[in-house]
Request: fold
Amino acid sequence: MLKNEKNALIMVDIQNDFCEGGSLAVEDANSIIPIVNKISNKFHKVVATQDWHPADHMSFASNHKGKAPFDTIKIDDREETVWPDHCVQGTKGAMLHPDLDQKPIDMILKVASDVNLDSYSAFRENDKQTITGLDGYLKRLDIQHLFLVGLATDVCVLYTALDATELGFHTFLIEDAVRGIDKPEGRVKKAKQRMQDAGVRFLRSSDIK
Ligand code: VGL
Ligand code: ZN
Reply:
């Protein structure tokens, strides 16, 4: 990868609550951190996202009577999963993992802070209308190639990748630098298929030179 190529790395939600010991820990999540650290200085721009919920957020099972984590609820016409409380604004769980090298990061984007709306994609909230501004940031910088790493493969990485291709970016998933929640089992496999069908290309961190 050449620094002068118009590429960007998007680090999706590498936060304490998605890592070992966190409230929504993704299996084996910590093992991506040294991989991300090894490649993150090879890109023209680096964006890190942070899931950033108010404590009364609608995506928490605890805010829905009778619901348990990983149940679904109906929002408008959408079925959405409810989760354990996670990434509450200002808490340790919401911080980027301390082992993640933050020096190469150019911009940190906090998402999903509207109490009534979740946001799996870094580009667009789940209503598919409310934008985050990331598309404008990247396009004004003339970025054309996006490389994705982070958590979780079957949630925020998936929806970020799908929106990225739809918005016209050449999109690459760095397969050894993502991990998924996979609850119910099979979601990661399905997510990878959806990404592939959308034109996302898969590569490995060792391909980033
Ligand atoms: C995520 C579930 C809930 C993610 C965020 O970052 O993939 N998953 N909120
Ligand atoms: Zn969340």
